[in-house]
């Protein structure tokens, strides 16, 4: 999410010459964050409007967010950009399931479709999609310097910058502060044993008070990318490592088996039986509806839970996910980028839209309104952002663990499918944790050899 305030705009090369740099706002970069509204209906002014107006009348398709406040924010941002530039932006919400979205984008690229201009791209996708993405290395050279270097490096494949960072993500534990106090606890759990104890006690108590739907812990257990993220956190925090390490498949080890066995034991216990089909919004709806003590989710759920119509507004907080006695708190690295399809016929207009959408000003607005984690240090350190997202400081000890997208490259989606399908089978009880991970190990070894 970068941005440069622009100065004078040089004429853009003709659209028929996509190999040449496009876009005209290569002016002085600005990180002025004053006067940014926290109102969802009032996104920042389009700083590069003058440069973008030369493409007035163009229509862009933008595959944006689909969870929490993200979709409404994307529509407000697009409307602001369209109003000030004359470039029409059609917002197309992505599938909530990241695995389905990956497959959709993959189909677009296989067909070399010109229907997609800009889309949000998961942090694990650059390696798989790099050959289909417009190289913005020179166009956004100054903007890229504003972001955390590790994210820019992640988005760079063989020297090609495939996308600009839009917002960061990591898994964390949401908990009900009111119920924690009511049931005699002074602090959220730091170990999985403690979480299980508190979840069971509160679940029994709330059901006894007349809420038969109350559960102790909700998370993402469906057979999709979200389960891969949960599984990685369970493994790492319980000394089970990661799925692949230094080229070797490491998913099948005693600690990993024990971690998956533990999670399978939650199903039908402190977690509802249906958690094996939960995605992010399923878990959030249960927690935000006041029917769960704990939830594993991403930062977007913080702002969603604090809306005026939320039953739990002001009654919850976040903490690092638990560990074993000797494990390390972990949160799977997530986050989304904005990329431009190399098959787009509107690259010049798309550049200006991405320039605006990923600017420091836009990142601050998104942080204040939707608690989207900034990828620009100056925004992360802004006092108003820290006030809106106090959990950023509370989660500093968390180890950000990464999925094996670099090790698997274009095969990542296949690798993740092996991982989450095997884990889901164990959660369903159709196979043991040991057999599930042995199966995943064999399949991954065949895939990456």
| CATH class membership of the largest domain | Alpha Beta
Fill in the CATH topology of the largest domain: D-Maltodextrin-Binding Protein, domain 2
Shape: globular
How many helices? The count is 20
Quickly give the CATH architecture of the largest domain.
3-Layer(aba) Sandwich
Structural class assignment = alpha/beta
Please give the largest β-sheet. Answer: 6 strands, mixed
Given as residue ranges, the uncertain stretches (5+ residues, pLDDT < 50) are 1-28
Helix content: 40-55%
Overall tally of domains: 2
CATH homology group of the largest domain: Periplasmic binding protein-like II
Mean pLDDT, rounded to whole units?
A: 92
Distance between the termini: 36 Å
The percentage of residues in β strands lies in 5-15%
In total, how many beta strands? Answer: 14
Over the alpha carbons, how many angstroms does the gyration radius reach? 22 Å
Give a structural overview.
- With 449 residues, this protein is an alpha/beta fold.
- It folds into two domains: 49-168 and 334-394, 3-Layer(aba) Sandwich (D-Maltodextrin-Binding Protein, domain 2); 172-333 and 399-448, Periplasmic binding protein-like II (D-Maltodextrin-Binding Protein, domain 2), CATH 3.40.190.
- It contains 20 helices and 14 strands.
- The chain has helices spanning 49-52, 70-85, 98-110, 126-129, 141-144, 149-154, 177-182, 192-208, 225-237, 254-266, 280-288, 300-305, 347-357, 360-370, 377-380, 383-388, 391-394, 405-408, 412-428, 433-448, and strands at residues 59-64, 88-93, 118-122, 156-157, 160-161, 163-170, 172-176, 215-218, 244-245, 248-249, 292-297, 316-319, 330-340, 399-401.
- The strands form four sheets. Strands 1, 2, 3, 6, 13 and 14 form a six-stranded mixed β-sheet that branches. A four-stranded mixed β-sheet has the order 8-11-7-12. Strands 4-5 form a two-stranded antiparallel ribbon.
- The radius of gyration is 22 Å and the shape is globular.
- The relative contact order is 0.19.
